[in-house]
Amino acid sequence: MVRNDDFFTPKWIDYYGRQLGHKNLYLVLDGLDQPLPAQHETINIIRKEHRPMGRLKGDMYRARLVSGIAKDLFQHYDIIIANDIDEFLVADPATGKNLAEYLSQPFKTSTRSALGLDVGQHADREKQIDPTRPFLQQRKYAHVSARYTKAVVATRPVIWGSGYHRVKGKNFFIDSNLFLFHFGMVDYELCKKKISDQELNKRGWSQHFNRRFGLFEIIRRKKPVHGDNFFAKARKRQTLCRPFFSLNKPGMLREKPVIEIPERFQDIV
To answer: Which of 186, 67, 62, 172 is nearest to 136 (CA)?
Structure first.
């Protein structure tokens, strides 16, 4: 689901189109005023009237809406992926399979979570992003964040909670070969422009933006470890150390670990 975006949408359509086939993509436009994106004729567009809401209420509305759309789509599909426009689900290239091939194997659980990697710009080492090139050729570091270890893959109808961070009434299972790359903070200048969006600030996004800007400092000051030396440990700790107030969500890693993204991912997104 997307509103007022012309940066991530082309990348989203291109990536998931290559991985899954354009005819299998469903983009929800939040507002009848929203222009159709490039390549719109190759995918499925669902247009909804915009409902001005605060951030939390809006997140809940979107989760319910997408859960309902997904339920209908299960009449035609075996697997549904639900995510935000700046999130990219990737099957580890080490498997030798693309995303569609990897997800075609039988799964016993109703959902699969991908390890969340919150990618940000290293201010001292990386230049402004070039949207025409793969992001991961230009960004080498990510914060391993439980906020983005989301149950985005469903094998049967489910009800997602706000932001797809959990599935109501269901446990989660972090797949050992799935990663969710979050690129919301991929570029400092882009984020500065977004934080000045008056519509979003009126809806209560300013506090969220201020918190998220901390990612740039985390990536700049933390000493990174190579991802392959930390991924298994992160999955285990996020599974075992859950928040007591929401046991069906993965636990945060207190040291805010930063990893260096393995080179095998650099040409994928």
So the answer is: 186
Nearest Cα residue to 129 out of 186, 180, 85, 181? 186
For CA atoms 144, 240, 148, 55, give the dihedral sign: negative
- Give 56-64 contacts, CB < 8 A, sequence gap 24+: 56/162, 56/204, 58/203, 59/162, 59/163, 60/162, 62/1, 62/30, 62/162, 63/159, 63/160, 63/161, 63/162, 63/163, 63/164, 64/159
Write the single-letter amino acid at 95.
T
Rounded CA-CA distance 218/43 in Å is 37
Q: How far apart are CA 83 and CA 77, in angstroms?
A: 17
Entry field: residues in the chain: 269
Instruction: Choose among 119, 173, 120, 184: nearest CA to 149.
Output: 173
Q: How far is CA 191 from CA 41, 129, 210, in A?
A: 29, 11, 10
pLDDT (tens digit per residue) in 138-191:
999 999 999 999 999 999 999 999 888 899 999 999 999 999 999 999 999 988
Full-model pTM? 0.93
Using one digit for the tens of pLDDT, what is the confidence trace for 215-252?
999 999 999 999 999 999 999 999 998 988 888 899 99
Strands (DSSP E) along the chain, which ranges? 26-30, 44-48, 80-81, 87-91, 111-120, 141-144, 153-154, 174-185, 225-226, 258-260
With contact defined as beta carbons under 8 Å apart, do 12 and 73 qualify?
no
